[in-house]
Design the sequence.
């Protein structure tokens, strides 16, 4: 079973919704208030080759979180946290606990 690429499907959906809304700013105000209008436009113009990395943008667009490059689990960690810790050393539930409690993960960096 092959999976269909998410990008072109998302671009087609955004193109259809933009046609109904009239402009990117109106579409952003109506359906995607957390995503900038320029990001929506970029996804559509690149035919889905650009897909945002930010988890809140992905959730608003209905895209699953990107798989972790080291353990291939579907977790998303902010870029600044990736510099502080090694994902191999911590379990996913430990990472989520640290993010929820907003503690400093590593004093050395």
Sequence:
């Amino acid at each position: 079973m092959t999976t269909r690429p998410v990008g072109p499907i998302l671009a087609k959906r955004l193109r259809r919704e933009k046609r109904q809304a009239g402009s990117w700013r109106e579409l952003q105000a109506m359906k995607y208030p957390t995503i900038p209008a320029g990001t929506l436009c970029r996804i559509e113009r690149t035919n889905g080759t650009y897909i945002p990395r930010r988890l809140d943008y992905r959730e608003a667009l209905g895209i699953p979180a990107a798989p972790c490059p080291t353990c291939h689990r579907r977790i998303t960690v902010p870029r600044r946290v990736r510099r502080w810790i090694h994902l191999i050393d911590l379990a996913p539930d430990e990472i989520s606990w640290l993010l929820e409690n907003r503690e400093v993960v590593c004093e050395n960096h």
Summary: Residues 6-61 form one domain. The chain has a mean pLDDT of 76. Helices lie at 6-21, 24-30, 37-45, 55-61, 79-84, 92-101. DSSP finds six helices and no strands in the chain.
